[in-house]
Amino acid sequence: MPDQETGNQHEPQRLRVVYSRGEALRFISHKDEFRMWERALRRTMLPVAYKQGFNPQPHIQFAAPLAVGCCGRAEHMDFRLSERMPVVQVEGRLRAKLPPGVSIRSMQEIPVRSRPLQGLLTGADYHIRVIAPETATGPQVVHEFLARGTVWRKRERKGHPYRYNLRPLVHRLAWVGFDAAGPCHNLLLRVQMVEGATGRPDEVVDELGLSEHALVLERTRLYFANEPDTDVAFPSDSLASQADVRDPHEPPRPPPRQRRRGRRRKPKGDVQAQQQVQSFSDKAADEFR
Fold this sequence. Notes:
The strands form two sheets. Strands 1, 2, 3, 4, 5, 8, 9, 10 and 11 form a nine-stranded mixed sheet that branches. Strands 6-7 form a two-stranded antiparallel sheet. The model is unreliable at 1-6 and 283-289 (pLDDT under 50). The protein is built from nine helices and eleven strands. It has helices at 30-43, 87-97, 117-120, 138-147, 201-208, 228-233, 242-245, 271-275, 280-286, and strands at 13-21, 60-62, 70-81, 102-110, 121-131, 152-157, 160-165, 170-179, 184-194, 197-198, 214-224. It is of the alpha+beta class. It is globular and about 60 Å long.
């Protein structure tokens, strides 16, 4: 008999998890994190929904992959079940199967046809600890960075390098003090994360001239377009588009190459050599030459 809270038991269900990834899993890749969640869900024996195809994958969707070496305090992830179950029961079974270093902060059910998390993502807050002596000029370099109108950086996308302005992507940068127990300098950073115009904390630290020191990066919050606090942190008139940060003097990127359909033409050469057919015994002999 289906549970009254979940309605029809045979309907699919979409759940959104807010979790933290601590120091123990700082240096795993996004691919490893996907496998971690896949195995944890598999061990719960929950009716996880899988995609169709030769190599079926579970319906797992992250808001923004964490970089290697970065912790996350409030990461967002969606996954689907083929059958509806009480959220409390799902959360309890999943908590018991997660490895050390990952903890669930909350879980809620959302409509199955909700917009993807990536389409709602607007920006993120980071807490950066720079392991450096007190003599390092933390406040000075932050002030100099904020005073600059343009901060040109180079990236590469699909094998094509391009230049962009990092400065409009940084909405907040502050030096909040020195911790003698570290010893480390503490920085707060807020960058926008919009398609085609995303700021990266490692590039900001590099522009500050502090990349030579050890860093501890922690993403403390993600901002989404459907949240009321997002308009305060990222006013609509302050968001930069891809055209705003692109170098106007840079030549346009070449259009993507289209794959030709149909049979490939044979290369020109000795027609007699092309017509020569090698026997099976000759092919086998070639393997051992």
